[in-house]
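Q: What does the predicted 3D structure of Histidyl-tRNA synthetase look like?
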Amino acid sequence: MKYARLTKEQLEELHPEFITFLATQSIDKKEWDEIKQNKPHIAEQEIDVFSDMIWEKALTNVTHIDHFSKNYIFLFKCMQNAVFSFVIKTNNPQIDFVSADGIHWLSENLFSNDVEITRGKKDLSENRNESLFEIIKQGGIISKGELFTKLDSLINQ
């Protein structure tokens, strides 16, 4: 398995896609029920293949990932061959970027001495999607990139 098995909730949400996936392999409902009952390891393999297929498609379409922790925010812009990043760090131990108050504080203090902003770039090899999946596994959230874009425009004014 290249990525991670989808959760039960995710599979339920993707039920129509999963039915289509099984149909492309000439597996109908009756046969699927039989496989689940008599060959659970085969059923798990099918779910793993489907999960990887869904992850691959989702990761291919990712343009931004955000990761928030107490004292850091990592904002990533994901291109085909590189990932650009902003790392925002607070030197104020009272601030928690995971909270709404922390984000509000950041908007008021973005260019103060209590905030450090670092830019970065990482070239990606042929394993772009696997690199992005690692960021997600560490707590990154796929986003539309509003924060990255806003910060980029503020810094480049």
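A (community wiki): The structure tokens above were generated from the sequence. The chain has seven helices and five strands. Helices lie at 8-13, 15-24, 29-38, 40-60, 100-109, 128-137, 146-155.
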